[in-house]
Amino acid sequence: KMKLAVAAILATSASALSFAPKQAAAAAGAAAFVAVAPAFAGDVGAGESVFNQNCSACHAGGQNVIMPEKTLEKEALDTYLAGGRSEKSVMIQVTNGKNAMPAFGGRLSDEDIANVAAYVISTSESGWDE
After folding, report:
1. Number of H helices, E strands in the chain
2. How far apart are CA 33 and CA 23, in angstroms?
3. Which residues are paired to 113 by β-bridges?
4. Per-residue pLDDT tens for 46-85?
5. Which residues contact 78 (CB under 8 A, 6 or more apart)?
6. Bridge-partner residues for 101, per DSSP?
7. How far is Cα 83 from Cα 92, in angstroms, rounded to an integer?
8. What pLDDT, in 10s, does the model give residues 98-123?
9. Largest CA distance in the chain
10. Do the beta carbons of residue 47 and residue 54 sit within 8 Å?
11. Could you give the CA distance from residue 10 to residue 2 in angstroms, rounded to a whole number?
12. Structure letter (DSSP) for residue 100
């Protein structure tokens, strides 16, 4: 997908260069930045499924059966999650694990991890169903 997006950007930029070089160069630079920047927007619905299959044994309802104060509630994520409450921070913790939490980097795909991170952040904001 990324290769197609980059190719489309380059093709658009190349055709635009023949009409307005300065504007096209600026657009190509901005487009290249967007194309290279990592995307963290996961699919919340798919993330719920990944969460239910891999995380809910310890984190059902956004709780934490091992360390009860370190829940997946918004305030706890703000306080305890390294890097703060963000999809990126959740992705890092899920990938690498920490303390009693195992690393899922070798078990789940990057896409699954991005999806579960989107689900955790979204649900922390809307509230977990206990």
Report:
1. 7, 0
2. 16
3. none
4. 999 999 999 999 999 999 999 999 999 999 999 999 999 9
5. 84, 85
6. 98
7. 9
8. 999 999 999 999 999 999 999 999 99
9. 62
10. no
11. 12
12. T
